[in-house]
Description:
Chain A is mainly α.
Amino acid sequence: MITGYGHFVQLAESLQWDETAIDLTADTEAWPKLEQEESDQVLGLLAGFCIGETSVATHLTSFHGAATTEDRMDQVLQAQARDEARHARFFDRVIREVVGVPGDTMTERVDALRDRVSPDLVELFEERLPAVAADVAEDSDNLTAAVGLYHMILEGVVLTAGQHALLETLKGLSVGMPGTHKGMELVLRDERWHIGFGSRVIQSADIVDDQMEELLTQGVKAASAWGDLISQDDIAKVEHLHQRRLRSVGIKFW
Amino acid sequence: MTVEQTEARPEAKRWLCEMCGFIYDPEEGDPDSGIPPGTPFEDIPDDWMCPICGAEKSDFRALEPGEFPEM
């Protein structure tokens, strides 16, 4: 059972943070001192977040108009869009100021990083998400399917796996990157309520059998979208959490 | 439900995950994690995690009776 939409509106207001207030000085000093393997791992994960957060910040706006039956739901979506834009700015700030990725705009910097991540991850965020966002913009009846992909798969599986992997990687570095770690923790905190909200939408929807099956199989497949950047153990953990989450919102598949 | 039945069965205390809004209801438990129905929140192992967001048990707080009536 998940609480009502009003809770998420209040929660979002209480969790605001400023990405420009995070001190990246130590991170900037640490970056050139990292081992090649360490910097490759961190940059691969950051690249995935830059691509993912930029895409979700862009396409979540299509969901707003679809939530016409529930004003509070629309308020939550607007609060979430504000979070996603902040996340995109935070990761862009890290790759610009700490890593020194070239490019005059966020788009150019994202373009410069695309080869760092697997084609599966790019496809999820840059092809499948825009497609479901377009479906929602065309017909609000597609909102549940869009939330299924966006909140349950992209956020609940792909980004969750990446967040935990990045936090673990940062924790084990030979030279610390405390600003990046702090920002990642704040992003993870935001994503928890986003996933709770998406779960609430799914819990309230009339999910038919083929949609249930799709949510399960898509989630299991998406857990591997980071390729070698995430361990098999972490993939198994996020798959397990995905299955628990679906059961908790009333989706029976066993 | 009669008045007598209501008085005989006080509402079980539910707990809210402050991170994601999940509500633990002792009457339902969390069978997927080995927590059978009827288990009070206090009796759940400390390493149990929220089934929605993976938050820790310490991220939950007790709900007051009637709190979040819009569910």
